[in-house]
Amino acid sequence: LYSRANLLLLLMNILPKYIIKEHLPPFIFALSVLMFIFLMQFLLKYITKIFGKGLPFLTIIELVFYNLAWMFALAVPMAVLVATLMSFGRLSGDNEITILKSSGISIYKIIRPALIFGGMITLLMIIFNDKVLPDFNHRARVMFQNIGQKKATLKLEPGIFFDLGKYSFHADKIEKTLGEELSERINL
Length: 188
Fold this sequence. Notes:
This protein has helices at about 5-50, 55-95, 95-100, 105-150, 180-185, and strands spanning about 160-165, 165-170. By secondary structure, it is mainly alpha-helical. A hairpin with a 2-residue loop joins strand 1 (about 160-165) and strand 2. Helix 1 (about 5-50) runs antiparallel to helix 2, helix 1 crosses helix 5 (about 180-185) and helix 2 runs antiparallel to helix 4. It is elongated.
């Protein structure tokens, strides 16, 4: 038989693994859903500028890949928030936090694994935002500029002057591609 001290010691070894195990599935799910939402928003915003203009499929994939970095930088903090709310909400709803507190475990020991998980994510995101994000943002901007220079029609908009070297163009009306018509119908 275990004494109360041995049970508490055993529980203190199991508790951090249990709390982290409660955080991971909601974190992964929330991150996946948020990345999907950001990706769909990006595609709908730029569908008229990148699809239907004769760009190679690999160029479009590369452009989307480079833009995934800023989406990831926005989605991770939101996913951590969702995971924390869902995991501690479930623990509270099942009265597990009450049981742990009545066992003599302080609330700080209960939330310590979540704080460590959040701290590790924070450190990883600091490195990501410092090293990866600026490079990917720069590459995406350069790709947009290169595409705009090679496919000058990508920048044309009705009623706006377009400068090309020493010449200026003005378009009153531009025929819409199928992608543009779809985008307008979706945005209605």
